[in-house]
Amino acid sequence: MLPAQAHRMPQIISLVTAEDRSKPTQFWQLFSVMGQKRILRIVHDFYHRVYEDEAWFRDVFARVGDAAHHVRTQSAMWIDVMGGGFHYHGAEFRLNFHHQHNAFQLMTNEGAARWTKLMIETLQACDAQINHDPRIRPSINTFLQYFMSKYAAEFGFQTSHLFGPTNPAFRRKVNFMNMTDAAIEALSDVDLKEGLLARGVDLSSSQERQALIKKAQSL
């Protein structure tokens, strides 16, 4: 999900999203643009739908506690993961622990599909809470898809349930002038081509990797 050396990139480790709306908001920066009330509204709406749903789905949650209980615990986790808690770096462990112990029975294709359906309905109903910044919904989708994929791998169900458009893969800016020849040779094809295009190099006449490497090394 993140590039190598991500821990040294300020735009990634920051819990505050960039003011430039052309740059995506990472899901751990969502609290900085949503705040507590908007997050609580989404979680509250979701669990209202859960407790109005069919018994096979609803009862798994009801055995743990009422809707208010789940709103409290889940909203705390969302706020934590989205950059609003004091113990942000432990949030993923707490989120995993919660699901592994409380919702094991729903970690199936059917359970994941129903959970996804209700969450999509929730986000659509709460659009007024998140449409003030077009980066919010893709970031929430990225957050949901990331954890759903983790649970799919852990519990062995399929993750074909998409929440909608997600953030694009992070692309680092490549500065060939500050790189050794060996470092340029180690670049992926995508980074190599994007770096050359960013410098205004015409790639229409040459697509061979070695030719691209030589162009980059000559800059």
Helix content: 55-70%
CATH architecture descriptor text of the largest domain: Orthogonal Bundle
Mind describing the biggest β-sheet? Answer: none
The secondary-structure element order is: HHHHHHHHHHH
- Based on secondary structure, the structural category is mainly alpha
Q: Care to describe what's here?
A:
This protein is mainly α. It has two domains: 6-155, Globin-like; 176-218, no CATH class. Helix content is 58%, strand content 0%. It has eleven helices and no strands. The protein has helices at 10-13, 31-50, 55-62, 67-84, 91-102, 109-125, 127-130, 136-155, 181-185, 189-198, 209-218. Helix 2 packs antiparallel against helix 4 (67-84). The longest helix has 20 residues, at 31-50. The protein is elongated and about 65 Å long. The protein starts with 9 loop residues before the first helix and ends with a helix.
List the helices and strands and how they pair.
Blueprint: H1 10-13, H2 31-50, H3 55-62, H4 67-84, H5 91-102, H6 109-125, H7 127-130, H8 136-155, H9 181-185, H10 189-198, H11 209-218
Nutshell version of this structure?
The protein is an all-alpha fold and 219 residues long. The chain has helices at 10-13, 31-50, 55-62, 67-84, 91-102, 109-125, 127-130, 136-155, 181-185, 189-198, 209-218. It is built from eleven helices and no strands.
List keywords for this structure.
219 residues, mainly alpha, Globin-like, 2 domains, 11 helices, 58% helix
